[in-house]
Amino acid sequence: MNFPFGQTRTRIAERHALIAPDGQVKSQIPGFSGTATVILINETMGANFAQLLVTFESGGRAAQPANEIETCGYFETGGGTVAIGRDKKRCGPGGFFFSPAGAAWSITAPKRGTRVSLFQKRFSPLAGVAAPRAIIGDASRVKGQPFLGDPDARLQVLLPDEPAFDLAVNIFTYQSGATLPFVETHVMEHGLLMLSGQGVYRLEDSWYPVAAGDVIWMAPYCPQWFVAMGKTPASYLYYKDVNRAAV
Ligand code: UGY
Ligand code: MN
Questions:
Q1: 80 burial type by CB count under 10 A (0-12 exposed, 13-18 middle, 19+ buried)
Q2: Residues whose Cβ atom is located within 5 A of ion ligand 2
Q3: Average pLDDT, the chain
Q4: Is 53 a domain residue?
Q5: Is 60 exceeded by the pLDDT of residue 247?
Q6: What residue ranges line ligand 1, CB within 6 angstroms?
C-alpha cells in the first residue's frame, strides 16, 4: 500500500498501538541469521510480552537457547524445520510451535520468504502444576468453534486450554459483516497480526481501518471491538495471557 509522502496509518498510543507494514524497521537478534526480523511489540512499548515477525532468506536460521522465556511461533507462509529440545518436525503454512521455558528451539532449512510470527513471554509457573510441554502442530487440524454461538465468527485455539499454559495463541476468522459481539474490556493483553481480509478495529475510543499485515497491541483493559468488512472473510492471529490471577 502506498501512502502520501510523510504519512502513515501507524499510531502508537499509551495503551494500544496499530503498526502498519509501511514503517517497519529490522533489528539484529542474537541467534538469528539470514533473516529480516522486526520487533513489533515489546516491553519498551509498555507490553508484558514480545511479538516479532521473522522473514527468512534461504539458508536462514533462528535459534534461541534454553532460558526463562517461552516462545510460540506461527508460520504464515513458507516452511521450515522446527526443533524444540529433541522434538523435530517440518512446518508449512499454518504450522505452529510452542517451546516452553527451559527448552532451546530453532527454525532451520526455511523456504525463501517464509514468514513466522513469534510471541514470547517470561513464563509464570503455577504452584503444584507441571510446566507446559513442547508442541509442534498445524492450524489446519484445529477446528474453528463458533465464538459465543456465532457460526460466522470462528475461533481456533492452537495451544491446549490447560492451567499449565500461561498464554494462548488463537486464530479468529470472521465472515464479512461479522463482529466481536460486544466491546471487550479485560485484564488479558493482546498482540495481533491481521492474516487476511480487512475490517475496522475499535481500540479504546479510536476506530481504525485494518488489513492483512497490520499488527495491533492492546494493553490490559483496552476496550476492543472488531467488524469484518469487504468481499472476503477476515482473520487474525492473536496472543493472550491466560490462566494466572494477578498478585
Ligand atoms: O480472546 C479474546 O479476548 C478475543 N475475543 N479478543 C479479540 O478478538 N480482540
Ligand atoms: Mn480480547
A1: buried
A2: 184
A3: 97
A4: yes
A5: no
A6: 172, 180, 184, 188, 190, 224, 240
